[in-house]
C-alpha cells in the first residue's frame, strides 16, 4: 500500500512524498506588498488537495494565488480548497510606434522628474486610490505606501505638470524582455482631460526611440477608464489572470 507523507521542508516549501519519491510540491511566496501567494505543482488531484490543506493550516490568512484565466482545472482545484475569486486582470501588448498625443493647454510632459516632487505626487495618488477603489486593485508589484521610506527611481517615470505641479505619471520598467508599464495615474481633479493619454503616449514614444517595438501591461478589469485608454491606443489583449483569495476578512 502506498503511503503519502507531507513534509514542510523549509519555511515556505512543502513536499508530498510517496515511496521515497516527491509527487508534489507547494510553495508560499511573500510579496513585497506583504501578501502571501501559494502555488502547488503536482499532476494528481488528491495530492493537490492534501498539500493545499496543509499549506492553509500553516499560513496566516488571507492567502492568495494567481491562475491563468483559461486554466479552469487549476481554478477548480483552488476553489475546492476554499479560495474565491477576488479580481481579474487583462494582459495587453502595447505598441510603441505612436505619435505622442498633445497634452491639454497648460500641461507639460517631462521625462526627468525630481524625486521630491515625484514622491509628493505618489503620496497624493495613493491616498486617492485608497479612498476610492482601494490599493488591492493595483498590480501586486505596485507597493503600498511605506511612510515615504520606499526609494523611487525617477528614471522609470514620465510625468505631466500643470502650473509647476506634478499631476500625472507613467512608470515603465525596462529590465525585462519587453518593457512593462507598471502604473498610469492622474490626480482625480485633473482626469478626463487627456493627460493620461498624453503622458502614456510620450512614454511609449521614448521606448520606440530606444528600440523597443512594444511594451506589456496588466489592467484590473474593473478599471474601465484604463481599459478604454489602452484600447484607444491600439493595445492588444493577449490573455488574463484570476487572483483568488482564501480567508478574506
Distance between the termini: 42 Å
The level-1 CATH class of the largest domain: Alpha Beta
Biggest beta sheet summary:
8 strands, mixed
Please give the number of β-strands. Answer: 12
Give the overall form. elongated
The appropriate CATH architecture of the largest domain is 3-Layer(aba) Sandwich
Q: What strand order characterises the main sheet?
A: 1-2-3-4-5-12-6-11
Low-confidence stretches are 140-148
Helix content estimate: 25-40%
CATH topology value of the largest domain:
Aminopeptidase
Report the CATH superfamily of the largest domain: Gcn5-related N-acetyltransferase (GNAT)
In a few lines, what is going on in this structure?
With about 250 residues, this protein is of the alpha+beta class. The protein has helices at about 45-60, 70-80, 115-130, 195-210, 225-230, and strands at about 5-10, 15-20, 20-30, 35-40, 65-70, 85-95, 105-110, 155-160, 165-175, 180-185, 215-220, 235-245.
Characterization of this structure:
There is one protein chain. This protein is α+β, with helices and mostly antiparallel strands. It folds into two domains: 4-88, 3-Layer(aba) Sandwich (Aminopeptidase), CATH 3.40.630.30; 92-240, Gcn5-related N-acetyltransferase (GNAT) (Aminopeptidase), CATH 3.40.630. Helix content is 26%, strand content 37%. The protein is built from five helices and twelve strands. It has helices at residues 45-58, 72-80, 115-131, 195-209, 224-232; strands spanning 4-10, 13-18, 21-30, 36-41, 63-68, 84-95, 107-110, 157-162, 165-173, 180-186, 214-220, 236-246. An eight-stranded mixed beta sheet has the order 1-2-3-4-5-12-6-11. Strand 4, helix 1 (45-58) and strand 5 (63-68) form a beta-alpha-beta unit. Residues 140-148 have low confidence and may be disordered.
Amino acid at each position: 500500500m502506498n503511503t503519502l507523507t507531507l513534509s514542510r521542508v523549509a519555511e515556505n516549501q512543502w513536499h508530498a512524498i510517496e515511496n521515497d519519491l516527491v509527487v508534489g510540491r507547494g510553495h508560499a511566496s511573500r510579496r513585497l506588498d506583504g501578501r502571501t501567494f501559494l502555488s502547488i505543482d503536482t499532476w494528481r488531484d488528491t495530492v493537490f488537495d492534501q498539500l493545499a490543506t496543509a499549506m492553509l493550516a500553516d499560513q496566516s490568512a488571507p492567502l492568495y494565488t494567481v491562475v491563468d484565466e483559461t486554466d479552469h482545472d487549476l481554478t477548480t482545484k483552488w476553489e475546492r480548497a476554499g479560495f474565491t475569486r477576488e479580481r481579474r486582470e487583462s494582459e495587453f501588448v502595447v505598441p510603441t510606434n505612436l505619435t505622442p498625443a498633445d497634452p491639454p493647454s497648460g500641461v507639460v510632459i517631462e521625462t526627468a522628474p525630481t524625486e521630491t516632487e515625484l514622491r509628493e505626487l505618489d503620496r497624493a495618488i495613493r491616498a486617492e486610490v485608497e479612498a476610492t477603489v482601494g490599493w488591492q486593485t493595483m498590480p501586486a508589484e505596485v507597493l503600498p505606501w511605506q511612510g515615504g521610506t520606499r526609494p523611487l527611481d525617477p528614471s522609470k517615470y514620465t510625468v505631466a505638470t500643470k502650473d509647476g505641479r506634478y499631476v500625472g505619471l507613467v512608470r515603465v520598467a525596462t529590465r525585462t524582455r519587453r518593457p512593462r508599464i507598471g502604473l498610469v495615474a492622474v490626480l482625480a481633479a485633473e482626469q478626463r482631460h487627456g493627460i493620461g493619454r498624453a503622458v502614456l503616449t510620450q512614454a511609449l514614444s521614448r521606448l520606440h526611440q530606444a528600440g523597443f517595438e512594444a511594451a506589456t501591461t496588466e489592467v484590473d478589469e474593473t478599471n474601465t477608464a484604463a481599459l478604454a485608454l489602452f484600447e484607444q491606443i491600439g493595445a492588444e489583449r493577449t490573455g488574463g489572470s484570476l487572483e483568488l483569495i482564501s480567508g478574506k476578512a
